[in-house]
């Protein structure tokens, strides 16, 4: 049966704009580029991908969501606000974490997350 998650993927509309957001704004490092149609980022042994290939999925806030774990939530939030990234959910605390949710250029939700110790 299922052994692991192979990848998470977000549909996007503009590859250059999305790569700038994920690489320059969020600091992800490019792992694999399949013809500028499917881009993969390795994150701690997992794969996050963006694609502008047609799979019948629509970019935007009503789709899936991913959470990226960060070392310092306050510092990351300040950097994102400085870069004028739109916030869907301002920083908040739950019993197990601190988090905020931003939007990528297509409106996909990206959670910035810090687990409590």
UniProtKB/TrEMBL annotation:
<dbReference type="InterPro" id="IPR029068">
    <property type="entry name" value="Glyas_Bleomycin-R_OHBP_Dase"/>
</dbReference>
<protein>
    <submittedName>
        <fullName>Glyoxalase/bleomycin resistance protein/dioxygenase</fullName>
    </submittedName>
</protein>
<dbReference type="Pfam" id="PF00903">
    <property type="entry name" value="Glyoxalase"/>
</dbReference>
<dbReference type="InterPro" id="IPR037523">
    <property type="entry name" value="VOC_core"/>
</dbReference>
<dbReference type="InterPro" id="IPR004360">
    <property type="entry name" value="Glyas_Fos-R_dOase_dom"/>
</dbReference>
<keyword id="KW-0560">Oxidoreductase</keyword>
<dbReference type="GO" id="GO:0051213">
    <property type="term" value="F:dioxygenase activity"/>
</dbReference>
<keyword id="KW-0223">Dioxygenase</keyword>
<feature type="domain" description="VOC">
    <location>
        <begin position="4"/>
        <end position="115"/>
    </location>
</feature>
<dbReference type="InterPro" id="IPR052164">
    <property type="entry name" value="Anthracycline_SecMetBiosynth"/>
</dbReference>
